[in-house]
Design a protein that fits this description.
Shape: flat
InterPro entries: Ribosomal_Su5_D2-typ_SF, Ribosomal_uS5, Ribosomal_uS5_C, Ribosomal_uS5_euk/arc, Ribosomal_uS5_N, Ribosomal_uS5_N_CS, Ribsml_uS5_D2-typ_fold_subgr
Number of helices: 11
Protein name: Small ribosomal subunit protein uS5
Radius of gyration: 25 Å
Strand order of the largest sheet: 1-2-3-4
GO molecular function: mRNA binding; structural constituent of ribosome
Keywords: Ribonucleoprotein, Ribosomal protein
Distance between the termini: 53 Å
Helix content: 25-40%
Largest sheet: 4 strands, antiparallel
GO cellular component, one term: cytosolic small ribosomal subunit
Strand content: 15-25%
Structural class: alpha+beta
C-alpha cells in the first residue's frame, strides 16, 4: 500500500533515486541540455551591447581598459573585459555548500569563489551562489570579470628593470582576516600561503613578503582580504603622482555624436517566424 501511494503520487516512498528519471528530457529532439550549449556560444559571439561603454568598445573607440579606469566608468557587461583583456585566465578557488533554513527544511546551494587575472596588473574576484555548481562557477566568472581592478606595482630599491613588487606596505581586511604585504627584493619570490599566492600570481606580482592573522581557514575571507590589499595599491599617493593632472574629455563626451545615433534593432516579422 505504501509502495503504491509513493509511486503514484510522487511522495516520499520512492526516495531521491526517482529523480534520476528527469534526465530523460534531453531525448526530446533539440530541447535537451545537449542542444542548448552551441546556441549559447553563438549568442556570445554575436554580442549586442546594451550600454554606451559597450557600444564604444565594440566600435573600437576605446582600445584599452586603462581609458575606462582613467575616467572611473562603471563596467556593466563582462564582454567589455573579454574584448579589452583577452588574456584573462580564471581559476576556481573554492566551492562550498551553504544552507538556509526554511519551512520545508534546509535549502542547500553552492557558493563558488573564482579569481581571474592576466598576470600583468589586472585581477578580479567573483563570488556567486546557485543551486547548481556549474551555474555558480559561470556566474562567479562573470562577476570576477566585472570586478577587475588595476594593480599598481613598484620596486624594492633602485628602479631597475620592470616593476616587480608592491609599491609600499599595504594592508587588507575582511572579517577577522588581516593580510599585510611588504615589498621584497628582486628574486625573493612570493612568500605567502597557497590562497594569496595564487591571487598575487594572477595580479602579476613577482616578489612580495606577506603576513596574515585571524581565521585564515575561512578561505572566502582570506581571498577577499588579499583582493582588498591589491585594491589599496593605487590608494597610496606617492611623489610620482604629485604632478599636475591634465583633465581630458570622457569617452562619453568625446563620442557624443556616435552615441546619439539610434541603435539598430532586429525586427522579426510574422513571415520570418512562420518560415
Amino acid at each position: 500500500m505504501a509502495e503504491r501511494g509513493g509511486g503514484d503520487r510522487g511522495g516520499f516512498g520512492r526516495g531521491f533515486g526517482g529523480r534520476g528519471d528527469r534526465g530523460g528530457r534531453g531525448d526530446r529532439g533539440g530541447r535537451g541540455r545537449g542542444g542548448r550549449r552551441p546556441r549559447r556560444e553563438t549568442e556570445e559571439e554575436k554580442w549586442v551591447p546594451v550600454t554606451k561603454l559597450g557600444r564604444l568598445v565594440r566600435d573600437n573607440k576605446i582600445k584599452s581598459i586603462e581609458q575606462i579606469y582613467l575616467h572611473s566608468l562603471p563596467i556593466k557587461e563582462y564582454q567589455i573585459i573579454d574584448a579589452l583583456v583577452p588574456s584573462l585566465k580564471d581559476e576556481v578557488m573554492k566551492i562550498m555548500p551553504v544552507q538556509k533554513q526554511t519551512r520545508a527544511g534546509q535549502r542547500t546551494r553552492f557558493k563558488a569563489f573564482v579569481v581571474v587575472g592576466d598576470s600583468n596588473g589586472h585581477v578580479g574576484l567573483g563570488v556567486k551562489c546557485s543551486k547548481e555548481v556549474a551555474t555558480a562557477i559561470r556566474g562567479a566568472i562573470i562577476l570576477a570579470k566585472l570586478s577587475v581592478i588595476p594593480v599598481r606595482r613598484g620596486y624594492w630599491g633602485n628602479k631597475i628593470g620592470k616593476p616587480h613588487t608592491v609599491p609600499c606596505k599595504v594592508t587588507g581586511k575582511c572579517g577577522s582576516v588581516t593580510v599585510r604585504m611588504v615589498p621584497a627584493p628582486r628574486g625573493s619570490g612570493i612568500v605567502a600561503a597557497r590562497v594569496p599566492k595564487k591571487v598575487l600570481q594572477f595580479a602579476g606580482i613577482d616578489d612580495v613578503f606577506t603576513s596574515s592573522r585571524g581565521s585564515t581557514k575561512t578561505l572566502g575571507n582570506f581571498v577577499k582580504a588579499t583582493f582588498d590589499c591589491l585594491l589599496k595599491t593605487y590608494g597610496f599617493l606617492t611623489p610620482d603622482f604629485w604632478k599636475e593632472t591634465r583633465f581630458t574629455k570622457s569617452p562619453f563626451q568625446e563620442y557624443t555624436d556616435l552615441l546619439a545615433k539610434p541603435t539598430s534593432k532586429i525586427v522579426h516579422t510574422v513571415d520570418d517566424v512562420e518560415a
